[in-house]
Each structure stands twice: as C-alpha cells, then as structure tokens.
Amino acid sequence: MIVTTTNELEGYRVVRHLGVVRGLTVRSRSVVGNLGASIQILFGGNISVYTKLAEETRQEAFDLLVLHAEAAGANAILGMRYDANEIASAVTEVLAYGTAVVVEKVGAAG
Predict the structure, then answer these.
(1) Alpha helices (H) along the chain
(2) What is the pLDDT of residues 44-66, one digit of tens each?
(3) pTM to 2 decimals?
(4) What are phi and psi of 10, to 5 degrees?
(5) Nearest CA to 1 among 106, 95, 98, 107?
(6) Which of 14, 44, 49, 58 could form a disulfide with 37 if both were Cys (CB 3.0 to 4.6 A apart)?
(7) How do beta strands 91-105 and 76-88 pair?
(8) Residues paired with residue 13 on neighbouring β-strands, in sequence order
(9) How far apart are CA 74 and CA 63, in angstroms?
(10) Separation between Cα atoms, residue 15 and residue 103, nearest integer Å
C-alpha cells in the first residue's frame, strides 16, 4: 500500500477513486500512566509516557486506515492526514483519513 500526504503520486496515475477511508481509535490514559507522566512533568522535558501513547495511537489509526483502504480494493491512499481530539477527560480520539485510489505506474502496460 502506498500512502502519501500529497494529492498526486509522481510516476503514477489514478485509474479509480474509491472514496474516503479512515482509521479511528479512541484511547484513554491509565492511572499508572498518568502517575508516571506526573513524575516526568516535575523534572521537565519530554513526557515519554505520553509520547509513547501518542505514537502507538497514531500507528493504530494508520493501520486501521490501511485495512479500510485494502478492503475497498485500493492500492494507494492520497492526501493522508491525522486529526486528534480529546472527547472526554483523559480520552482522546485519533483519526487517520485519506482518499483510497487505485493507481498504476505511468507507462505500465495495461
């Protein structure tokens, strides 16, 4: 699966648009994680507990996005973006979205 944040893919042409695809996950921070982060906050710098949570959450949303695109028959996703919102205290949603397409290399035999 080719995934890009651009709206075009150099060297390829879009032969079919399949529509918007997304991967959505909702995560909460654990009491233990909050305690660890609170200790890190006292010393300043990177709050690695939250950094790890954010990275894992984005990766999960990305993986779900790719699964959704594959299920639609896509071999590429254009215009991929992330969005995140806190929907309740200590509960965050992360959305990965883009346009599922079928692409082929320019000059490839059809």
Answers:
(1) 31-43, 48-72
(2) 666 677 778 889 999 999 999 99
(3) 0.82
(4) -60, 135
(5) 98
(6) 49
(7) antiparallel
(8) 104
(9) 14
(10) 6
